[in-house]
Amino acid sequence: MNRFSRLVNLRRIREEATGQLFSQAAARVEELVRERRRLEEGIREARSQALDSLGQGEARLPPQLVEDFFSGQALRLQRVEEARRKAEKRREEALQVWKGARIELKQAEILEEKQGAREVAERQRQELMKLDEVGVQQYRRRLQEE
Description:
Layout: H1 3-55, H2 63-145
């Protein structure tokens, strides 16, 4: 194993690790998007139920408590949205790191291929030199025999 093979292996490990970090960051963003949707649906249902109960005169909770509940839900929505924006930023950063690792891996693979081609060419050259030497020795033997 030459130094370029080791380099490729190390770069491959790095690329896989950064790819995994990117996928985890993307999964976190999707999780927060789903959480926001669930929260919005819950708020819509609660608002609808609260308005229906107020409209029918069956208010089980004081209006101030309902208002505070919806204010709290709005704050939760803001927090989830803020967390989603931060997660989006982390995802984009992870994507850039992953892209950089992929570029470095490709460069290392190209170097490894070039080095492999050089080694093959050198082996062929050495083999041809040996064959040439054998041919020269046979020629000399024939000349001595004649």
